[in-house]
Amino acid sequence: MTSLENTTLTTLASLDTNTVSDALDFMGLPGATYGLRPLWNCPKIVGRASTIQLGPKTGTAPTVHLISPVIASITTGDRILVITGGTEGISCWGDILANAAKMKGICGSVIDGMSRDIEGSESIDYPVYGRGLTMISARNRLVQIASGTPVVVAGVTVYEDDYVIADRCGTVFVPAAKIDEVLALAQRIASRQDGMVQAVRAGQSVEDVMHDKKFEAIRS
Description:
By secondary structure, this protein is of the alpha/beta class.
């Protein structure tokens, strides 16, 4: 990871999903999602997307376990596994994968699907964000179809190396080509909102402080 990439991730980590979502709104960009929340009381994660597409298993021949080839190939400490194609009630994450990902220094997993064995991820402090929990295994039900390709996650198209931030409010994806613009705007939004909080605490009318014109002024 270059010093520039490290600075970008540090700046992203200083923000929260609410602020980054607002910046995307101002810019007319997709990226904010609904429903991909922490599956245990895990910390915020930021990083670059390693995309994985899952799908139903149609044959009977044994296959390499889904997601394991991607984990094995990762060599940097800035990756977040972004997994889609899950099926309601069927797990696409578990504690053996979590341990393997932890050993490779992966930042966490975001699943448009479900996890099982969540205590296993929690016990090693491995962050997992997704739609919910189950005990039903993916084995002989789901397979990995592709990796490193564009995937649709909670209605948002995510590309390999896009930026990811996830916290207690949910998950946001930022296109890699727009990260500098989004971060600059998000920092202005954070500064403006901090000022608005201070104004309310100082006794100013919340009606005036939160008027739309105050938010629109962030553009300038």
